[in-house]
Hints:
Order of helices and strands: EHEEEEHEEEEHEEEEEE
Structural class: alpha+beta
Helix content: 10-25%
Distance between the termini: 70 Å
CATH class of the largest domain: Alpha Beta
CATH architecture of the largest domain: 2-Layer Sandwich
Amino acid sequence: MSVETDRNWFLLTSKPHKDEVAEFQLRNQGYDVYRPLAKRLRTQRGKVITKIESLFPRYMFIHLDDGVNDNWAPIRSTTGISSFVRFGTEAARVPEALIIALQQQEAMLGERAIDLDRYHTGDKVVITEGPFRGLEAIFEKYDGEERVIVLLEILYKQTKLALSPAQLYAA
């Protein structure tokens, strides 16, 4: 007689800079783990290089049942693992649809890299396209891969504007 259980995705945190080690150790123990990855452009010793890093540093997903067939005890003592993300006393469950969506987005990104070092908060930039073409703005932050947020002074008031990073160049 076998016991049927529902498997769910749960969210784990790893220790700082130990994502890759934690994933490797969990896989070695036979766990089904998903750590979304992204290619990122980084500046290293004055050169721009492409590195593959965690899309969500310090977070990964693990596929487990509710403890009937999977032993959760070794997970907490796995090298690189900090803990389960919890809401109250319950480990945070992640909907299967979210995992599938993340995997599809990761596959779509493919060879494209996210340039996280091009602009920094406070940098002056110039808008190259659209109705604000030629105006100077202040870079605020990246909002995903496809957008950046800049501050543009309109009528003596700073206004947030979302643009594609391709629509900017450093002033």
